[in-house]
Amino acid sequence: MRTTPSPEAAAPVLATQARLPALARPVRQGLWGLGLVALALSISAAVSIGAVSIPLGTVWGVIANRVAPSLVTPDWSAGRAAIVWDIRLPRALLAALVGAGLALVGAVLQAVTRNPLADPHLLGISSGAAFGAILALLHTGMFLGLATVPLLAFLGALGSTALVLSVASFAQATSADRLVLTGVAVSFIVMALANVLIFLGDPRAAHTVVFWMLGGFGLAQWAHLIWPALILGMAALWFRAVAGSLNAMTIGDETASTLGIPVARFRITCFVVAALVTGVMVAFSGVIGFVGLMIPHIVRLVVGGDNARVLPAAMLVGAIFLVWADIVARTLMRPEDMPIGIVTGLIGGVFFIWLLRRRARG
Amino acid sequence: MSCPPPAPAALRLEQIAWGDGILQPVSLSLAPGRVLGVLGANGAGKSTLLRLIYRFHTPQSGRALLDGQDVHAMPARAVAQRVAAVLQEQPTDFALTVAEIVALGRAPHRRALSGPSARDAHVVEHALARLSLLDFAQRPFGTLSGGERQRVMVARALAQEPGLIVLDEPTNHLDIRHQLEVLRLVRGLGATVVASLHDLNLVQGFADDLLVLQGGRALAFGPVAQVLTPDLIARAFGVRAHPRGPAQFDFSLFDDMQQERQA
């Protein structure tokens, strides 16, 4: 006695066919356009605002002149052009790249660990990256040229990721909170070791420690942008291509495997790519906390949970957020630069408490 | 768009075993479209057996054949196109909507780097409609009740267009009405079904065949009426079974009764 599907059951399907995909697509595309404009304006503002204020028109003029010299005739001083092109623009772009990268990594880690508290900083990945970068800068020398620092930062990030995962598994720490506690513990240890490296090798140790622990974009140069940009671009394309698998991972390992996903290998690959992105970002900006934790949550409130939308949106919002956080860090105690980690720590810490409260209620 | 139901698969287990005696060799054969209930006390090896069928565990010995092909020799994706599973795992709340979760079932049918096709959208809507979830399509999964969530997970499995659906305790944590509803829905899907259950009273009217496990061993396999005897229940669960005690009820859904009255 087998019941076959009745024609009545199929009829309402046709009536509602248009409902799902049609929902608010123009609105969504509008939001994207708005976001990109907001990012461009934020970067422009970051270049304009500073100890010497430069009008937006001049900012765009200098950039246009650099990109296509025939297009604009300079009506600004060489000094101003240098501030815009050599100092502030690479700095703003680095902030945007790092913000996009950390937010992307945060969203991916949250999906593959099914842990809403996952974040490259809280899981100790950033500390490992800082350890690697410091080792390269102060102890090994640039044996591979400019790639030395990002490469060792990547290896450090990979090492601390492996450490966190193995400690978490021997401590049977499968729950969300315990994985984070393990990450924080490993993070403390690795950061302490990194600081030992600094005091062994740097006469201006205290200053250097502050940079690595709290981050900053003060060292941004055009020549350095290539690595973060390249790695971020490739990682973003790959993560976006596997967004469906990331969605499946949020249901559970076994269900994901019944959808044809090689779960263990996929998760490890995600961790390695996440360590790569984190490593490269930390190598040029130090450890900046809470961006990867905070941004994906905010983005999900707006675009929903589908990673095909979450990942690009998190990158966009993360970029805008760090550009503005850097503006605050540069201007609050003008002309002194405040480490950007102070700004993200203040905002992110409050956000973390809000998140814990929400989880406790939910 | 035409959407013919996929052909139900034939399942054959040949002396399949796992984990040094956690599951001792089990053999059975299930014709296409049959519904198999797997019964047993906690720790009897029900979940282990299911994991072997949906290719999460690799058998220590023996084989699981799907339409004559060894499941563990097939690529994961090929199996995922024929076998779907409704497990006890529940999505972490990452704000996925019901429609997005159901759409995950299309993943094994999609080529790398390509987005959802018109046919994917159609199959997803069809699965939502079959489980009366169209009104929930845009709701976040986290806002649903237990019964609604289970329906979403069944719809997700259905979107996979499987020939075989494996369900691990599909009635867990549901009240009696939702238990009956889910089982009736599963029975009506047209696929071959393997479902583990621990409620003896739900087996009748749901399963065609029954496999009873105890301590990792198969006690009996066959049509429900032949297998489900007081003696067997005593051996499998360690309780005495009274065929029809004074304080027992038979449960059914209201519309069944109405149909009966009308008849």
Structure, briefly:
With 362 residues, chain A is mostly helical. Chain A has helices spanning 7-15, 19-22, 25-48, 56-67, 78-112, 125-140, 148-170, 176-201, 205-214, 222-241, 243-249, 253-258, 263-285, 291-303, 307-331, 340-361.
Describe the structure.
The complex is a heterodimer of chains A (362) and B (263). By secondary structure, chain A is mainly alpha-helical. Chain A has one domain: Orthogonal Bundle (ABC transporter involved in vitamin B12 uptake, BtuC). Helices cover 76% and strands 0% of the residues of chain A. Mean pLDDT of chain A is 87; it is low at 1-23. Helices cover 32% and strands 22% of the residues of chain B. Chain B has helices spanning 46-53, 76-80, 98-103, 118-130, 146-159, 176-187, 200-203, 224-227, 230-237, 254-262, and strands spanning 11-18, 23-30, 35-40, 61-66, 69-70, 83-86, 164-168, 192-197, 209-214, 217-223. In chain B, the strands form 2 sheets. Chain B has a 6-stranded mixed sheet, sandwiched between helices. In chain B, strand 1 (11-18) and strand 2 (23-30) form a beta hairpin. Chain B starts with 10 loop residues before the first strand and ends with a helix. In chain B, 46% of the residues are buried. The mean pLDDT of chain B is 87. The chains are: A mainly alpha (362), B alpha/beta (263). At the A-B interface, helix 1, helix 2, helix 11 and helix 12 of A face helix 2, strand 6, helix 3 and helix 4 of B.
Per-chain topology:
The complex is a heterodimer of chains A (362) and B (263).
Chain A (H helix, E strand, L loop, with lengths): L6 H9 L3 H4 L2 H24 L7 H12 L10 H35 L12 H16 L7 H23 L5 H26 L3 H10 L7 H20 L1 H7 L3 H6 L4 H23 L5 H13 L3 H25 L8 H22 L1
Helix pairs in contact in A: 3-5, 3-15, 5-10, 5-13, 5-14, 5-15, 6-7, 6-8, 6-13, 7-8, 7-13, 8-9, 10-13, 10-15, 14-15, 15-16
Chain B lengths: L10 E8 L4 E8 L4 E6 L5 H8 L7 E6 L2 E2 L5 H5 L2 E4 L11 H6 L14 H13 L15 H14 L4 E5 L7 H12 L4 E6 L2 H4 L5 E6 L2 E7 H4 L2 H8 L16 H9 L1
Parallel strand pairs in B: 3-8, 3-9, 6-7, 7-8
Antiparallel strand pairs in B: 1-2, 1-4, 4-5, 9-10
Helix pairs in contact in B: 4-5, 5-6
